[in-house]
Specification:
The chain is globular. 73% of the residues lie in helices and 0% in strands. By secondary structure, the protein is mainly alpha-helical.
């Protein structure tokens, strides 16, 4: 069982709004509530000293969201699920790119390369 399948089993959401609320529990939701403005989020939460850690967490969250795309819950369509998660990942990636474009693109490229190697 993949990580995505295990985590999907924990989700019993029934609407896009519910999925957004559950996503907020993963930490990235608050960043998106600030319109993806990383600096505004970090300063409002007094996280300046942990800014690098928060940035890396956001990058990891993009990867996790992309894992979730693989397993669609039974209460939605695959198209809606994929659309919602792709939107979340894109917004997080854009937020990270505004902070450090080269690190963000490098991390995302490495994941794409690993996925290509894993695909038979």
């Amino acid at each position: 069982m993949t990580l995505a399948e295990k985590l999907a089993g924990c989700s019993t959401t029934t609407s896009r709004r519910s999925r957004s609320a559950n996503f907020a529990g993963l930490g990235g939701g608050e960043l998106l509530q600030f319109g993806g403005d990383f600096n505004k989020y970090v300063t409002s939460k007094s996280l300046q000293k942990q800014e690098g850690m928060v940035f890396r967490h956001a990058l990891r969250l993009i990867l996790l969201v992309n894992e979730f795309v693989q397993v669609c819950p039974p209460d939605t369509t695959e198209e809606e699920w994929r659309g919602d998660l792709t939107d979340i990942a894109s917004r997080l990636a854009e937020s990270c790119r505004r902070v450090d474009p080269s690190s963000t693109d490098k991390a995302l490229e490495e994941v794409e390369q690993e996925a290509e190697l894993a695909t038979p």
